[in-house]
Design goal:
- The relative contact order is 0.15.
- The chain has two domains: about 130 residues, Vaccinia Virus protein VP39 (Rossmann fold, 3-Layer(aba) Sandwich); about 140 residues, no CATH class.
- By secondary structure, it is α/β, with parallel strands linked by helices.
- The longest helix is centred in the middle third of the chain and has 24 residues.
- β6 and β7 form a beta hairpin.
- α4 runs antiparallel to α9 and α6 packs across α8.
């Protein structure tokens, strides 16, 4: 399906790989499409309707969608700078490989026993790694000394991880050092994202980039309310990221955004508020307690699943589709009413039209 609009967000499970099944099943005469669990917005971007309403209880995600709903040239410049730096970072860090080998050898032989002595030795090397001027000009909140402290920390972690293996293979060692530099970039971006004074376009760029290379694409906050994703270099696909960001340059994307209302509400709350009618359509893809989507970090409890089932089965005249893991007990409620059902991988698709 070459004419689909790819989401610019890596979020949870996503539905892009299921388009071949789902898109042909959607009604063709929708007045209002309601998406109570927005996430990556794959269906929002590719279903045809006269009007769209999307809801998500994650405030930051809604803010991001609202922010990019109009062209943002500065955002494009920032994302381009991130991509360029990501590509060149391994080359920048590899220039210091031999010196880090010397520190590593000293460390393995028993010197540099405490963290402060390691930080001193590695920090002197990190302070010599300077970023391209075009990047620091573009990301004005980037502080070289703060970034170099994070780089020092990540390089020390790489050295400590290599010590038990007595690593002498320069290729493997260089890989560890390069990945540590990438993680330092990731962690410092996360640190800047959590700073309240950072401008909205920079926050949006940090969020889009870090979500693209975070483990399981989780958007999680800790007890202090700070964004705390886990880095996963294996999932960082710069070519895929570049393709996804092309969506933000498409006129059709902004036309769709002009037709869309975004809500910061729990999905069922939004549906009760909107009161969809017979010519409307609800696409419900809730986070789940079972299956691969249980790691999304925003679980939808059994009570909430039952409430959604009761609403769709008994309290709306609208057409609807809901996707659930086969293991979820709530699927029995849909099956008992005779709703249409289709098995899709390890999930079940239910619909009423």
């Amino acid at each position: 399906m070459d004419n689909v609009m790819r989401s610019f967000i890596c979020w949870g499970h996503g539905r892009e790989k299921d388009f071949g099944v789902l898109l042909p099943m959607l009604p063709k005469d929708i007045d209002t499409l309601l998406v109570p669990f927005l996430g990556s917005g794959d269906i929002l971007l590719n279903a045809e309707a006269k009007r769209y309403v999307a809801s998500e209880r994650c405030d930051e995600l809604v803010d991001l969608w609202r922010f990019v709903s109009r062209p943002q040239p500065v955002l494009q410049d920032l994302l381009s700078a991130f991509l360029d730096l990501w590509e060149v970072m391994p080359k920048l860090s590899s220039a210091f490989k031999s010196r880090l080998f010397e520190v590593y050898d000293t460390f393995v032989m028993g010197a540099l026993k405490d963290y402060s002595s390691m930080a001193g030795a590695v920090g002197r090397i990190a302070r010599e790694l300077t970023l391209p001027e075009v990047f620091t000009q573009c990301v004005k909140c980037w502080k070289e000394d703060e970034w170099q402290m994070e780089l020092t920390h990540q390089w020390i972690l790489a050295l400590e991880a290599a010590k038990p293996h007595r690593m002498t293979d320069s290729v493997r060692f260089q890989g560890r050092i390069a990945n540590a530099a990438l993680e330092a970039m990731f962690e410092y971006m996360v640190f800047l994202y959590n700073r309240p004074e950072v401008k909205p376009q920079v926050k949006a760029a940090f969020l889009l980039w870090t979500m693209s290379c975070a483990k399981n694409h989780l958007f999680l906050k800790d007890e202090m309310g700070e964004y705390t994703p886990e880095f996963c270099v294996e999932e960082a696909d710069s070519a895929d990221f570049l393709v996804r960001m092309k969506t933000l340059e498409m006129p059709d994307f902004y036309t769709r955004m002009q037709q869309t209302a975004f809500c910061k509400k729990e999905g069922l709350v939004m549906l009760n508020f909107e009161k969809p009618g017979e010519r409307d359509f609800i696409f419900a893809d809730p986070p789940c307690l079972y299956g691969p989507r249980k790691k999304r970090g925003r679980l939808f409890s059994n009570k909430m699943q039952q409430g959604l089932a009761d609403y769709l089965l008994n309290k709306t005249r609208s057409r609807w589709m809901v996707i659930l893991p086969q293991r979820d007990p709530v699927t029995e409620l849909y099956s008992a009413t005779g709703a249409n059902c289709l098995a899709m991988n390890d999930e079940l698709v239910f619909w009423n039209y």
